[in-house]
Specification:
Structural class: mainly alpha
Number of strands: 0
Largest sheet: none
Strand content: under 5%
Shape: globular
Order of helices and strands: HHHHHH
Length: about 120
């Protein structure tokens, strides 16, 4: 890819996509580094629950002036999805070593965020 094409590609990446990609990469890397570490832990939540909860958390944070989610707002979103922060972390830790699976999860997050109307 030429430098011009690369610069154009960078300039067309939405902030939402960049944020999602960066966070996804960070979580996958951290989870893979930790290994499963699950031991006798219960099965992780379904991927659909993880995806939808993550999307709601990210869109709410992006809507905030500081782009940071207040703890009360975060807890409300987690309650809405009947999930805890620990369950989200457990999902990432449980699947972190399966890079193909986690890539598919983050691709799905990105696709759904891209389909959302701009705010």
């Amino acid at each position: 890819m030429s430098d011009t094409q690369l610069r154009h590609r960078r300039s067309t990446v939405s902030p939402r996509r960049l944020l999602t990609s960066s966070l996804g990469t960070l979580m996958v890397t951290a989870a893979a580094a930790c290994g499963s570490g699950v031991g006798n832990s219960p099965d992780p939540i379904e991927s659909e629950v993880f995806i939808q909860t993550y999307i709601d958390l990210r869109t709410s944070a992006l809507d905030a002036d500081s782009q940071r989610l207040a703890p009360g707002d975060r807890e409300a979103i987690l309650r809405e999805h009947s999930v805890t922060a620990e369950e989200l972390t457990h999902f990432a830790n449980s699947h972190g070593s399966d890079l193909d699976f986690m890539r598919d999860v983050w691709n799905e997050v990105e696709l759904r965020l891209d389909r959302m109307p701009a705010r």
